[in-house]
């Protein structure tokens, strides 16, 4: 059961084009600090998210564009999310800048391999 479900009417975020070099390590920035239940390492999370490529600013995925949030067990997600979401509270919005090694790998296999990715995530619920 999801606890602490929050308002899902927040607007799709806009991500400003980053300056400088892509970071070598995961960057976590709270845009809005939530006040609900806290996500833990083993949680299943209900999120709205937007993902763009660091270098081009091109959107590659967005739950907002599909019009519905997504439920995921954290353990099944890229390591950048596995490390970047725990500690986040329901109602929060967090930006993750994820280097390739913590996203889809450094080479081959996946269209986003070798790319640094930026995600803005709204945490709607935790179970």
From TrEMBL:
Keyword flag Isomerase: yes
Top-rank taxon, per record: Bacteria
Residue ranges annotated for the PPIase FKBP-type domain, each copy included: 42-127
Keyword Phosphoprotein part of the UniProt annotation: no
Catalytic activity: [protein]-peptidylproline (omega=180) = [protein]-peptidylproline (omega=0)
EC id: 5.2.1.8
Keywords (A to Z) from UniProt: Isomerase, Rotamase
TM region(s), chain numbering: none
Pfam families registered for this protein in UniProt: FKBP_C
First-level EC class: isomerase
GO molecular function, one term: peptidyl-prolyl cis-trans isomerase activity
Family: Belongs to the FKBP-type PPIase family.
Protein name: Peptidyl-prolyl cis-trans isomerase
Protein's organism: Klugiella xanthotipulae
């Amino acid at each position: 059961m999801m606890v602490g479900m929050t308002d899902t009417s927040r607007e799709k975020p806009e991500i400003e084009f980053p300056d400088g070099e892509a970071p070598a390590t995961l960057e976590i920035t709270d845009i809005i600090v939530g006040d609900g239940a806290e996500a833990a390492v083993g949680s299943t999370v209900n999120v709205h998210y937007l993902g763009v490529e660091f270098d081009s600013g091109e959107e590659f995925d967005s739950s907002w564009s599909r019009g519905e949030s997504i439920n995921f067990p954290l353990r099944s997600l890229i390591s950048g999310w596995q490390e970047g979401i725990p500690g986040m509270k329901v109602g929060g919005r967090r930006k993750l800048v994820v280097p390739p090694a913590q996203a889809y790998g450094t080479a081959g296999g996946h269209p986003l391999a070798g790319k640094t990715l930026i995600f803005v995530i709204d945490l709607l619920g935790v179970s």
